[in-house]
Input
Amino acid sequence: MSLAERDSKVIWHPFTPQKGSPLPVGIVKAEGAYLYDEAGKKYIDGISSWWVNLHGHSHPYIADKVSEQLRTLEHIIFAGFTHEPAVQLAERLLELLPGEQTRVFYSDNGSTAVEVALKMALQYWFNKGEKRTKIIVLADSYHGDTFGSMSLSSRSAFTQAFNDWLFEVEVVPVPVEGKEVEAVEAIQAIVNTGEVAAFIFEPMVQGVAGMQVMERRALSEMVRVCKDAGVVCIGDEVFTGFGRTGKVFASEFLSTKPDIYCLSKGLTGGTMALGVTTCNQTIYEVFVSEDRLKTFFHGHSFTANPLACTAALASMDLLMRQETFAAIQHISNRHFDFYTKIYNHPKVKAIRHKGTILAIEIKNDEETSYFNNIGQTAHEYFMDRGVFLRPLGNVLYTLPPYCISDADLDEIYAALEGFLNS
Ligand SMILES: Cc1ncc(COP(=O)(O)O)c(C=O)c1O
Output
């Protein structure tokens, strides 16, 4: 029996209908930008395995560092204990993050990094003894799948079964081209109520919304409006962090910086699960008290896992090399050339590009949604050609690992163009 057949008897996969879905692909090995299935077929990983991989799979440098750490200290409770990888990673992140961040709080995935940020922002007001009840989010946002992060995300088919249990949020337009004024005015109006506790947003690019690219001046203005009113601004860089948009963090594009950041995905170079929430001194200070009720009561068993922190440190060594940023710039240039080439293709409704991210929205007669057939048809077409892409409904996109070769980028572009012409 194949791996895929054995799997189909015992496993329940994420975001996968349990009837009518094809068998999963059994992967036996991954190296660089390639995945190898159990039948020996090779695929180019065009989406960095759900946006996590930066330097290629099974990277020997990261593998060596993690394996050394595994023999020294694999894990330890993080309440009352600390260790070198956690301290060093915190030191390096604080140095790199834009906007004078001073504290790092560890968790273990993107959704928990968001939960921590939200709880920090709400308890900030609680500890200060001020009642602020509103939370502002951008339309079409996605912040994760736990209840708090789902509440902050757009209501959709994904959340339908849970909508009655999600808390209310204030939704403002995304500051994309043409909506800049509307978005800034909308946020100003809500902030003027004086009841807003926090504003959470994906800086510059909304991933799950189909790689929507925002106007940086308008987004900066929205953050400034909030900060002027003392509203806690949370930059969810779970997807955009670590070079994806061409800068180390997408918030570098903004003239006003968030108070809190959420990080995960590329944090460990895609090697291990790790979440980080950071904050500035203004937020942190209200938790520093002799009153024990002002403690931040949150933690996970695998908080600051030493292996994951080590993977993150190794990934950061690789990320900060000059050649990595040259590679990111090269991918961005190649994306732009392809963007220009297919901009006027009759099937293209819109095309979006930021750094290593390229997205093509296809014209669609059916209702535009995640559930239209284009996504699945396109996915099968790409997989047949040995290119792994996982469209978001009628939005085809690629965001490859930074180590991808020109020849493999050519393969991805040819597959995208081939599908458009099919
Ligand atoms: C912006 C953003 N925030 C949070 C998350 C949730 O991360 P995780 O899947 O690790 O829980 C995601 C996942 O795609 C994301 O794109």
Observations:
- Residues 67 and 307 are 8 Å apart (CA to CA).
- The chain has 13 helices and 16 strands.
- The chain has two domains: 3-58+322-421, 73-319.
